[in-house]
Amino acid sequence: MFRGSIxxxxxxxxxxxxxxxxxxxxxxxxxxxxxxxxxxxxxTTGESATLAVPEHLSVVEAVVKQVAGxxxxxxxxxxxATAEAIALTQAVDKIGVDGMLSVTPYYNKPTQxxxxxxxxxxAAVTKTPQILYNVPGRTCCDMSLETVAELSKVExxxxxxxxxxxxxxxxxxRKACGDDFLLLSGxxxxxxxxxxxxxxxxxxxxxxxxxxxxxxLCYAAxxxxxxxxxxxxxxxxxxxxxxxxEANPIPVKxxxxxxxxTQATHFRLPLTAPSEATKECVRAALAASQPV
Length: 292
Hints:
By secondary structure, the protein is α/β, with parallel strands linked by helices. Helices cover 45% and strands 13% of the residues.
């Protein structure tokens, strides 16, 4: 269910910071038309850190309603307090999603035993498939191979989004967790190699601006068509760095506005509009990554 090209969807916002639900609906339609395989609502790229819980749930509900069962919807449900993550998980369960993406607790730096206990406690309150999310560059918390392997034994923990960019993890994870455990990249620059090494897909930022190309890359990599995968990866490569010259999702939101995909590209503090240097960098990357 959660394979191939999955978008880490932005949350469109008006100038006052409120969510633009009309723009959100249009973005969902855009991704379905472009062939995106699944949608992650209110993950990091969706500015989960600045949305209040009622808003968070409203965005998830709006995405689910607009998708109307046409592609899987995965909701971000992570938190650094286990009780908060459980409450969010239970609230999202009432909306009805196909899966949930739960990030490692940030800021408080739990031990590996604490991570196992945290994710076991969340999984125990729901039957909805859970995807672990390991992104130590943001959380200062890294799940070990042994921790992932232990959690893969939990029935409804079905996979991991690995955003470390460390390709040496793929083969050991596959061996330790088995063929049925989903391995999803969360690092666009290494996503092609991740899939060629045995991964099942990628939850992508770049997918927001080049969904058709990114899907082509994923399917080429997953089918072992190395020549096509490399060609598409080369086309998209300028975006991999340009979309992260400032904190995600600042550059990708501006890129979407530049392409005319949406005008609702405002942010909430502490995120701010991109600098002119960032705009120029993104503009050049968009020109270099145009389909040929």
